[in-house]
């Protein structure tokens, strides 16, 4: 499973050596963050110098920039099984708000050639990682210009930005409600597969 090259940033020297090895452009972002806050693209030496004038923040990492589209895949794991998993495509990149552009996404159709690829890819990531027995998840995956899927990140939580509400409208269940039931030891009866429309709980 391919991932961008990356490095934990301890000083400006780390950034310099990373760029010397991998070239421009690069992404600098917090190790733990949200909404692309404090995320910066360095496209050339001028960007690098400008970035250093403000000092290097703590708990940052640097990654190679991936040219292509970004997708998010959202779902629900119940008793260790993936009972819901569905991909969406970002309309603009996650840094769009920094350019005063809207950030949104739309769910892929079942016949989209990337739908099953992204589902299978995400299930593979969940199987490889220490995934909780009962959890929602929000993954982000790059699709580059060479028809490759490249892993960005995954979290054991429901996605923000109306992801929860979109899933509820499209599939007929509230993912946070089901996760809360499962984590409290209450009965959750899924009646859903990748072709079905609903999950029933009780």
Describe the protein's architecture and organization.
With 202 residues, the protein is of the alpha+beta class. It has two domains: 6-64, ATP-grasp fold, A domain (Dna Ligase, domain 1), CATH 3.30.1490; 68-183, D-amino Acid Aminotransferase, Chain A, domain 1, CATH 3.30.470. The chain has five helices and nine strands; from the N terminus they run E-H-E-E-H-E-E-E-E-H-E-E-H-H. Strands 7-6-5-8-9 form a five-stranded antiparallel sheet. It has a four-stranded antiparallel sheet with strand order 1-4-2-3, with helices on one face. A hairpin with a 2-residue loop joins strand 5 (68-78) and strand 6 (81-90). The longest helix has 14 residues, at 115-128. The radius of gyration is 19 Å and the shape is elongated. The mean pLDDT is 87.
Helix and strand arrangement:
Elements: E1 6-9, H1 12-22, E2 26-30, E3 40-42, H2 45-52, E4 60-64, E5 68-78, E6 81-90, E7 105-107, H3 115-128, E8 135-144, E9 149-155, H4 163-171, H5 175-183
Antiparallel strand pairs: 1-4, 2-3, 2-4, 5-6, 5-8, 6-7, 8-9
Give structural attributes.
alpha+beta; 5 helices; D-amino Acid Aminotransferase, Chain A, domain 1; 25% helix; four-stranded antiparallel β-sheet; five-stranded antiparallel β-sheet; 202 residues; 2 domains
In short:
This protein has 202 residues and is an alpha+beta fold.
What portion of the residues fall into strands of 2 or more residues? 25-35%
Tally of contiguous helical segments:
5
Question: Which strand order do you get reading across the main beta sheet?
Answer: 7-6-5-8-9
Q: Supply the number of structural domains.
A: 2
- Give the N-to-C terminal Cα separation: 38 Å
Structural class, judged by helices and strands? Answer: alpha+beta
Q: In CATH, what is the class of the largest domain?
A: Alpha Beta
Largest sheet: 5 strands, antiparallel
Envelope shape = elongated
| Total E-strand runs | 9
CATH superfamily of the largest domain: ATP-grasp fold, B domain
User: Percent range for helical residues?
Assistant: 25-40%
Question: What is the mean pLDDT?
Answer: 87
- Tell me what the CATH architecture of the largest domain is: 2-Layer Sandwich
Radius of gyration: 19 Å
Uncertain segments are none
List the secondary-structure elements in sequence, H or E: EHEEHEEEEHEEHH
CATH fold label of the largest domain: D-amino Acid Aminotransferase, Chain A, domain 1
């Amino acid at each position: 499973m391919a991932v961008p090259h990356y490095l934990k940033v301890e000083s400006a020297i780390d950034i310099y050596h990373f760029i010397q090895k991998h070239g421009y452009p690069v992404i600098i972002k917090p190790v733990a963050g949200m909404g692309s806050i404090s995320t910066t693209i360095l496209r050339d030496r001028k960007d690098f110098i400008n970035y250093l004038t403000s000092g290097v923040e703590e708990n940052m990492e640097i990654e190679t920039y991936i040219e292509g589209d970004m997708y998010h895949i959202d779902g629900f794991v119940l008793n260790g099984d993936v009972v819901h998993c569905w991909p969406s495509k970002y309309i603009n990149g996650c840094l769009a708000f920094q350019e005063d552009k809207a950030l949104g996404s739309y769910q892929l159709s079942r016949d989209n050639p990337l739908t099953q690829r992204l589902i299978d890819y995400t299930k593979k990531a969940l199987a490889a990682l220490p995934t909780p027995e009962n959890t929602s998840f929000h993954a982000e995956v790059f699709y580059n210009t060479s028809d490759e899927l490249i892993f960005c990140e995954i979290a054991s939580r429901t996605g923000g930005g109306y992801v929860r509400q979109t899933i509820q409208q499209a599939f007929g269940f509230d993912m946070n409600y089901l996760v809360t039931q499962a984590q409290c030891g209450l009965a959750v009866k899924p009646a859903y597969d990748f072709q079905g429309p609903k999950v029933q709980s009780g």
